Amino acid sequence: MPQPRLAHPQPTSIAHPPPQADGALPPSHSLPLAPPTPAPSPRPTSPEPSSPLLGASASFLSTFPHLPARQQRAFLTSLVPLLSSDHLRHLSTLITPLLQRDFLRDLPIELALHVLRFVDDPRTLARASQVSRTWRALLSDEHMWREMCRRHGFDSHLSTADVLRIRHQEFLRQQGGFTSMCSFSGPSGSDYIHSPRPMPALTPPLPPQAHPFSYRRHFVLSFLTDANWRRGGRLLITHPPSPSSPPPMAGADLAPLGAVPGIPLLPQPHLFHGQPGHPHAHVHPAQQAPQTTENVVTSLAMDDDYIVVGLANCRVHVYNARSGALFRTLVGHESGVWCLGLASATPKDDFIVGGAYRAPGLAVERDSQEAWNEEQRRNMADPCGASRGWGNAGPVVVSGGCDRDVRVWDVESGECKHVLAGHSSTIRCLKLLHDRPIAVTGSRDGTLRVWDVERGESMHILAGHQHSVRCLEVWGNLVVSGSYDCTARLWNVDTGECLQIYRGHFHQIYAIAFDGVRVVTGSLDSTVRVWQARNADSVQMLTGHTSLVGQLQLTSTHLATGGSDGRVMLYSLPSLTPLHRLLAHDNSVTCLQIDHRFLVSGGNDGRVKLYDLKTGTLVRELTEPCEAIWRVSFGRERCVVLCKRDGRTVMEVLNFRPEEEELNW
Amino acid sequence: MSITLISKEGAQFLVSKPVADRIGVVRDCAYGADFWLGYAVATDDSMGITLANVTSSILSKILVWCEHYKDMEPLVDGDSNMEFPEWDMAYIGHDMNQILFVLEAADYLHIPGLLLLACKGIADVLDGRNPRGICDLLGIVMDFSHRQEVDMDKENGYWRWFLHPT
């Protein structure tokens, strides 16, 4: 409480230090220093006693502050019993406001925001924003929500559009176009997006979107999406529509979006019932009768915009990821497609501003752990089969299969831009490099080939394996391949040389993963081996499985393996400590994917299971059980399941993103 | 060497150097005095520093923390997930009013570790309270416009949906 400073023992003021020589220090206790006193924070002012006090009580009041604390307390304790309830009520109204302080209003703003950063539960923040105007304004502070995003790991999955938006807004703010500290949401925010301010050439173009980016919105969206994974979500679309139940979005799959006139599309719903082995089946799609032969899904790639499915019936189907509608069918392969990759569209500006490519080497000494982590994250192959493009305006699909040709497709137009011949046997695996127009393919002829898919040229032939190349993985400009000759090899894409050979497996290698430091191989001999990429002699063996290990994924923190024994193992990195042993399926594991939240596995027993990565507990099954799961892949907001149901091949798109109207605030 | 700290009421606290060193402003004062005032620092027990914004009760509370942390490093901002030791949580308690004074004093005295703890303490008191509860606790009057109330109703439906998902 503010008290009059009547009898301060050392009323020396710092503002006027006595001008003294060095040696002439005053004796003890005469040098009270004081830190500079900032203006005290505003506080509720205590009511001044306005009524004139009589002499005795006035003099007592002036001595009260100087009594020892114990005596003050004793005095107050003995005073209370003397008071009537009227007095007490009066006191209570005087005291209560002194004990209640609206700290968000009273504290300096940076302190108030600092406090809010410590609130762990976002629901508390949501409630606090309904307290008063001041609180509401403070709680829409972007920095705080940014911090919350960081703390919950939501900042790592900003979409390209969001990143552009942030960069744009920061640019405008630097230009002084936007100075308010509060959020961009709300009506004032949308004004400035459309402001006629001339944009300098280097500002990234702003993708059209209803809302300007706000971390608060992003947080809520991410938080609810995660909650939906656990308990909500909805089946966006099923291809073909189930005959028993009406399609969830009737007609949506019949109206391809952005159709270009003159390009034939396949509008009939029974997409997967082509004729395998009949190269001209696609020419007269309308005449196709529903077939009893099922078609095997061999490959799946997806990004935020498109889902690409490769089939053993020579087709590649492209779907709009947001609506689930068929976007285009790419026809041209003469026999089954076995593998494909999707290069996401990257506007050139964005590529120049943000995605500057740096050729990585093998992990040697790095300036800092953080720089290395960032580099590792950037170079890591995407588990969904999509790569960052090289500045391509539209998305590009690269596919290969039994006809030995690599085909490069422009998705928007459906045009096959290049047919790259070279392999002398079936192409079994294919990956695209990030940020560069380079594809690497592995074939049953025992070679890998490196292609420039922009110019349509072969760059290198990577020869060395004695048998089929079964699997490959890319990281930066390095590629590892696993082969039926029981060895794995590490190659440099730019020079075409073989850098390492990893020998040790007793049987064919079926799966491979690579994170720039370690190479992980899964083999028919039922072991998983973890090699140091730079030193092929250093190897650790993981023996958790009892038969073929066909599924592997490495992230920066975990290694997941899945085998034909139906088991899924999860290890932590870098120690390779086993975290969870999951008896996931009755039959072999056909697909497996992890991110920082979940593990999703699909098996030949027809089930798709969602596990919590931290606890290893089964959260739920994502689809109704069916006959077999071909492929499952998931992104942040959706999960695509390709399976065999009632004898037919079916694609299901599960959406976990909250509805737009729910986010409209 | 020890230093005498003088509270707002004039009460004197004699503290040892390692304890006083936890208080940033005292440290600056003690080491920077010749710089500020043009004469050398007193090196005997005689130095007194007036902390004009801090009351005796809060200062003695703060000195308990400084005493506890005289030999170890408190948490620094940016430590992942900020798990405070049990002692800290017991020390800061749940008395909102007192924590606020500690917070302000820690800010004024430049004690980053204690500032973090006070922030955490306040956040914990707020945790789990509904808007009405926060208003009662802090004596705030809700002053929303009609439009804002409509917005909040929308929000409410929204958060309720995630509190009790179907």
TrEMBL record, chain A:
Residues 33-50 have a biased composition (Pro residues). The keyword Repeat applies. WD repeats lie at residues 390-419, 420-461, 462-501, 502-541, 582-621. SUPFAM superfamilies: F-box domain, WD40 repeat-like. Coiled coil: none annotated. It holds the Pfam family F-box-like. Residues 1-54 are annotated as: Disordered. CDD domains: WD40 (cd00200). Residues 101-148 form the F-box domain. GO terms for cellular component: transferase complex. Keywords: Repeat, WD repeat. PANTHER family: F-BOX DOMAIN-CONTAINING PROTEIN (PTHR22847:SF732), WD40 REPEAT PROTEIN (PTHR22847). This is WD40 repeat-like protein.
From TrEMBL, chain B:
Keywords: Ubl conjugation pathway. Essential component of the SCF (SKP1-CUL1-F-box protein) E3 ubiquitin ligase complexes, which mediate the ubiquitination and subsequent proteasomal degradation of target proteins. Component of the SCF (SKP1-CUL1-F-box protein) E3 ubiquitin ligase complexes. Signal peptide: none annotated. Belongs to the SKP1 family. Pathway: Protein modification; protein ubiquitination. One of its GO terms (biological process) is ubiquitin-dependent protein catabolic process. InterPro entries: SKP1, SKP1-like, SKP1-like_dim_sf, SKP1/BTB/POZ_sf, Skp1_comp_dimer, Skp1_comp_POZ. Residues 44-70 form the SKP1 component POZ domain. It comes from Calocera viscosa (strain TUFC12733). This is E3 ubiquitin ligase complex SCF subunit. Pfam families: Skp1 (PF01466), Skp1_POZ (PF03931). Residues 112-156 form the SKP1 component dimerisation domain.
